[in-house]
Known about the structure:
The chain is mainly alpha-helical and 122 residues long.
Amino acid sequence: MMIVILRATALLLAVIVFLAYGWGDRDCLSLLAKLFWLSPAFGLLVIGIAPLRILRSYKFRILPTSVFLVGMMQEANGIIGDFQMPIEPDTNAATMRAIILITLALGIFVVWRPAFPVDVKK
């Protein structure tokens, strides 16, 4: 049940981040800058859409983890920027970014946790 809630939350947040990206005019950005800017949205999309057996595959764990980590760094940088506003901190944006950051961290947990509990016998 937790996975279903995590996936639904990730898809909803991905839609919000994609819409927020399209809100402004960002034609001047290069492809690499656009990918970096949208890395939280891509990470959330991976959490929401990718099957768990692919995410937990030993061959493919590094790619989603790196996307999640880049997205988490971008969101942490955004939270710091939201609190350093000159007139008044943007706490609503910082709260939304914190939720995205937590969702990406849960995605890393889902990718790296063992699929089956290991029973260690002495």
